[in-house]
Design brief:
- The protein is about 85% helix and about 0% strand.
- It has helices at about 5-25, 25-50, 50-70, 80-95, 100-115, 120-140, 145-175.
- It has one domain (about 5-175).
- It is built from 7 helices and no strands.
Length: about 180
């Protein structure tokens, strides 16, 4: 099996995990699913020679483990952790810089870091939209067809998650009035 086909299979597997995270209700579950997603996606990028994307995914996996441990112990993430992981992504991105599209991967990673760092699940889902748009651009650039398709699917899942939160909020407001 060649590297391209294997990379596309890894995209499909990883999408199951990240898609599920957008529908998860607890931060712990979101973090755990995101770790698994990042590991598969990093391997996908490696097989395609997209090293900036690979490094950003490995940083994201490390970040998600750190945030998962905080969430598991019911601790709030400190500002230091946000600064640490965005700085690490920036420095690694500079070292691994391949072309201007590397900036898209770095930017998406930084938005993702903030979305996971903060505690509001609705903000997490809303911020997933620009992250997905960034990865759609990156997928086109690295010619990863399944990555493009899966990012479009994820974008739909993210929108459904946001609408679901809004629907539940509206339902509670209507219930309060009765």
């Amino acid at each position: 099996m060649n590297n391209y086909i294997l990379s596309q299979i890894l995209v499909i597997i990883s999408t199951v995990f990240i898609g599920t995270s957008y529908l998860a209700k607890s931060k712990k579950k979101v973090m755990l699913l995101c770790v698994i997603y990042c590991i598969f996606y990093s391997s996908h990028y490696m097989l395609l020679g997209a090293y900036t994307g690979m490094i950003m995914s490995l940083i994201s996996a490390t970040r998600n483990i750190y945030f998962y441990l905080y969430a598991k112990n019911n601790k709030k993430n400190k500002l230091f952790s946000l600064i640490l992981f965005t700085s690490f992504a920036t420095i690694s991105g500079i070292i691994c810089y391949q072309d201007t599209f590397s900036l898209v991967s770095i930017g998406a990673n930084m938005i993702s870091t903030y979305s996971i760092w903060q505690d509001n699940i609705k903000k997490y889902r809303v911020l997933a939209i620009p992250v997905s748009l960034g990865f759609i651009i990156y997928a086109i650039h690295i010619n990863s067809i399944f990555s493009l398709i899966m990012e479009l699917v994820l974008l739909g899942i993210e929108i459904i998650g946001i609408l679901n939160i809004q629907y539940n909020c509206d339902k509670k407001l209507v219930g309060d009035e009765v």
